[in-house]
Every structure is written in C-alpha cells, then in structure tokens.
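Troubleshooting log. The previous run stalled partway through. Resubmitting the same two chains, unchanged.
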Amino acid sequence: MSTGLLVNLLLLLALGVLCYMLWVAQKRNQWLQLQANQAQDSKQRLQVFLASMSHHLRTPLNGVMGYAEYIYSSTREPMIQFTSKIILENSLQMLHLVNGLLDLTKIQEGTLALSNSEFEIQDLVESVRALHQVRANELGIDLKVVTGEDAPVRMRADPYRVRQVLNNLVDNAINYNKPQGRVMLTVSSSANGQFVTFSVEDSGHGVPEAVQKTLFKRLHDKQVPFVLRPNEGSGLGLLLSHQLVQLMGGFLDFSSQIGKGSLFFFTLPVREESSA
Amino acid sequence: MAPLKVIVVDDNHTNRLLPGLFLRPLGHEVQECDSAAQALDWLAQNHCDLVLLDISMPTVSGLQLCQQLRQEPHLQHLKIVAYTANAMPADVQLLEAAGFDKILLKPIRSHELLSVLEA
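Second attempt completed without errors. Output:
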C-alpha cells in the first residue's frame, strides 16, 4: 500500500472519528438538555401541586376556624367557649403546619423570597412575648424578655421570618417546659455589634441525647419508625427555623441538659449602617 | 364607623356565609352571591361599598370579575377585597397587580376582616 493511500485512509478515519465524537457530543447535549427540562418540569409540577394543596387545605380551614371563632364570641356559656376555643387553637396548629410545609418546600427549591427592611428589635421581641404570654400564664410559666445593654436597637432583615423563628423557639420552650417553669428570651450583641444574638432558655426537660444529633434534619431520618418515637413534635418548626436562619446569613444552635433545660440561640447580621 | 353595604361573592356555601356572621351584628348590610353573574346583577341594581371576592370560582373567576368591575365608571368608589385561599406569594402578587384594594387570606380571623373594612 502506497504511503499516499495510507495517509488518505488515516485522514478519512480521523475524519470519521471526529464526526462520531461530534455526534456523541451533540447527543449528550440533547440528553443533558432533556434532563434539565425534565427537572424543571417536575419542579414546576411540584409548585403547582403545592399551590393547589395549600388552597384546598385553607378553604375548609376557613370554615372550621371562622365558625369556631363565631361560636366562641357569641356565647357566654363556659363549656361552649372552652370547646370552641379548643377547635380554634387546634386548627391554628394545622394552619401553622400547612404554612411550614410550604415554607420548607420553598427553601429546598430555592424559591423562598426574603424581604429586607429595617425594624426595631425590641418591638419585635415584645410582640413575640405578648403573643405567648396568655399560654405561658395558663401553664404558670414565667416568660421574660431580657435585653443586653450592648444589644443593637435596630436591624435589617426579614422581620416576618425573624419573628417566625422566635415564635417557634418560644413556643417549644413553653410546650416542653415543666409546670411553673421559666422561659427567658434574651437579645444581645456579638462581634462588636455586627451581629445580634437571640436566645431562648427554658427550664424544661431538655432534648434527649439521641434526638440532639438529628434535631435539624429529622425529617430525613427514616431509621426510627414513627410509632416507636418518643412523644415529640413534628420537628418541622426547628428544621424550618434552622434553614431560615441560614438563609438570612446566620446560624442557629442549641445546648441542652437532660432534666435542666435547653438554650436555643441564633445569630444574625445586624446590617444597619449606624451600628456597623 | 358608619354601616357599610357589603357583598360577599363565593361559590363555597360555608365560606360565603361566614363574613356576614361577623359583619351583621356590627350593623353592616351583607348580601351573599354564589357567582360572578349573580354579583353583577345585584351590583347593577344596588348601591355597594365593598366587595369580598373569592378568586377560584367556576365560569367567571374572582380575578375576571374584579377586572370587569374596575372598568365600570359608576363603580369607581367600590373597594374590592380578594377573599381567597390562594396564599402562594406569586398568586398574592398577581392579585395586587390586578387591582384588588386588599387581599384577605383564608382562613380569616374576625379582626382581619374588620381591619379591611376600616382601612
């Protein structure tokens, strides 16, 4: 075989290989595009499903809560007031769950939008205390707010979400407390006033050691069958709080001693010009 | 506050009757309608201050009805409030952009309902 023919054959072969590689690359791109489209598609389908579920849960809840409130406000009969209030409180819990599940899904999808405004920290903390005062009184729990001398006055963040996290922590501190227990909500400054730390300390039962490790990822914990778990919450509130604080550029952590109580705290950037 | 004439438009019977339970004892006049068509008929013959409007209704949605009402020259004074279970942020933004004065999310509390009347 002459050298010329061999070179031509090799060139032809190289051309063939090149064409094949281009074809493979094109197919691969098409496949990747298809995968991306499918992922986008299933994300959109999930969003539509969630919006629909939210709508279909809220519609009957409107009836349950609305009529319970009407009954409660239109009678002086103690037993009817007592029972209608229970319906109201329980449906509120259900509403929080509906909202929480939606929030969590939005965080995991990366579609949760945070607002950003400046607000007085003391006002927010006071409103959280006021919201829980009645329940604390009912259980004989001493609920206190303590503001450190160096605590920043204002901060820039999403006030709705900061309140949501605080409400969750205070709610847990009250619900997992002992009768006549204490709950202390403290605001303080850290890192030369660049960060603000909110902490919620209770004198409750403490978080069991086995639960401590998975407290912020319990929804993924499939090892313990649900019926075998100790009496505990859904875990949604803490999981959500943890992720919300992360999303706002801070961190949430806790320490706990069995029989003595727990301290949950989170730190957020203040981001306010005058205090920087 | 002066008594208002309120119309509640909702295809769901339970939710249609609810606002009236809180509003009538305070002296407000409340008319309930189960569809956009019925609401339009009533509005053509009666004076009204405020519309509480469900969004997800068959045939003509609350969104369509709101847009239609906004085009009526003699109804420019009308306050239109969405009374809806569509709570997703995208839905709320859409409603705000569509000309609703306020958005009242189901489940409602009586104080929220009353604050809508006062504002």
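Takeaways: The interface with chain B takes residues 47, 50-51, 54-56, 58-67, 69-70, 73, 91, 95, 102, 113 of chain A (CB under 8 Å). Helices of chain A lie at 3-73, 78-109, 121-138, 159-175, 209-212, 236-247.
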